[in-house]
Specification:
Length: 374
């Protein structure tokens, strides 16, 4: 217990719920971090090596992201222990069991995350009565299919590049994690003239200084294959993506992939955090000291949750894209200007912005307000 409480502060977490159903081999954790702005929205992650600590930190990232984006939602997250590539029937059983377990956690609205997708959200919706990121056929805006987060990431990069005088035409991008976020970010950036010089997935890194064919790689992944199955380019180990000479480096896989011990390997001018908490605090400090601009996760990758919030209120895909474009651009600019003005890390500026909104919302709520003077 003590261990979990070490993460608690004035903002949360408000609840940590463990779900165990031995008959289903189900082990899951839900963290509802802060609900001052409204019911918590946050993804359901499935991976074999998730942890309560990862879940708590990701839930906080959602609180900050939702507050920074000005959404009427708090932050939460859940993790299911398991290999996401398990057989579909087994996965459906596990996800439905998980969803039944959160039926009464009314202040948590689940969405897709690593290892889960729109189809999983349809199962969750049926069992729990709520979910976002649903398939279009049952009223959702399929945020991973349309690339809502990748679209927002490209918009954020388009603003950030002004701060370092980088032209997107011909800019070299490297993407770690060619999944829902990474591949769409590459696709939207290519429309602006950028060139994908390397991408990675769990099979390894694929590199080509003259540019990889993004459409072909997306088709390959859609067919259930890996980047290393591609017949062109140089094949390298997964972590070689850190060494790729590029202008924009996009982490879009797991947390803590850039740390004090490997940050010196990055050869880039801009890091746009597609994944949640991909760089440790020390790594972000080291990059700042080297003059590498980092756009923090909860500013750069808010596209998906903005889309989910629009869906939850019955909005359209067009409306979602407009909202993402406007919000992510405005927030990226506000954070980078504040960082420049105050000579602080972009993350510190982003935190100030989000925490100010959170505190304002908390003042309006009975449970979150500080005790009133008698
Ligand atoms: P995904 O499962 O669709 O894709 C993840 C990709 O990363 C896969 O291609 C996988 O092979 C690859 N990968 C996993 N471990 C890797 C490693 N060690 N090295 C290289 N590649 C690796 O997941 P996603 O939805 O694209 O999410 C990626 C990240 O972005 C996660 O951190 C997630 O929390 C974050 N995120 C996602 C969204 C969204 O809308 N999907 C929104 C905000 C943040």
């Amino acid at each position: 217990m003590e261990d979990m409480f070490r993460f608690a502060d004035e903002f949360g977490p408000s609840q940590i719920i463990h779900i165990y159903r031995p008959s289903l081999a189900l082990k899951a954790i839900v963290v509802v971090d802060n609900t001052a702005c409204g019911a918590a929205i946050g993804g359901v992650r499935m991976a074999a090596d998730v942890s309560v600590e990862e879940c708590i930190r990701l839930a906080r990232a959602m609180t900050l992201k939702n507050a920074a984006a000005g959404l009427p939602h708090g932050g939460g997250k859940s993790v299911i222990f398991g290999d996401p590539r398990m057989a579909t029937e087994a996965k459906e059983r596990l996800i439905r069991g998980f969803a039944a377990g959160i039926r009464n956690v009314f202040d948590y609205i689940p969405g897709p995350d690593m290892g889960t997708d729109e189809r999983c959200m349809a199962w969750v919706e049926e069992e729990a009565g709520r979910a976002v990121g649903l398939p279009g056929v049952i009223g959702g805006i399929p945020l991973d299919e349309i690339g809502a987060t990748g679209f927002g990431l490209a918009a954020s990069i388009d603003v950030a590049r002004e701060f370092i005088g980088l032209n997107l035409q011909g800019a070299r991008i490297a993407v770690q994690g060619f999944g829902s976020v990474g591949k769409h970010a590459a696709r939207f950036l290519a429309v602006k003239g950028a060139v994908l010089v390397a991408a990675s997935d769990t099979s390894g890194t694929l590199a080509d200084a003259s540019g990889l064919d993004i459409a072909a790689l997306i088709a390959l992944k859609q067919a259930g294959r890996s980047l290393h199955d591609y017949d062109k380019g140089v094949k390298l180990p997964a972590d070689a993506i850190l060494d790729v000479d590029c202008d924009i480096w996009i982490p879009a896989a797991r947390p803590d992939v850039v740390r004090a011990d490997n940050v010196a390997r990055l050869r880039t001018r801009l890091v746009a955090e597609g994944a949640n908490i991909p760089c440790t605090v020390e790594a972000e400090q080291a990059l700042y000291a080297r003059g590498v601009l980092v756009v923090p996760d909860f500013i750069a990758n808010a596209g998906g949750v903005i889309c989910a919030a629009v869906e939850y209120r019955g909005g359209t895909q067009r409306g979602a894209f407009d909202y993402i474009d406007e919000r992510v651009r405005a927030n990226t600019r506000a954070v980078l200007e504040e960082s420049r003005r105050g000579n602080t890390l972009p993350r510190a500026a982003a935190l100030t912005l989000a925490e100010r909104r959170l505190r304002e919302a908390m003042q309006l709520k009975r449970w979150h307000s500080p005790p009133r003077a008698q």
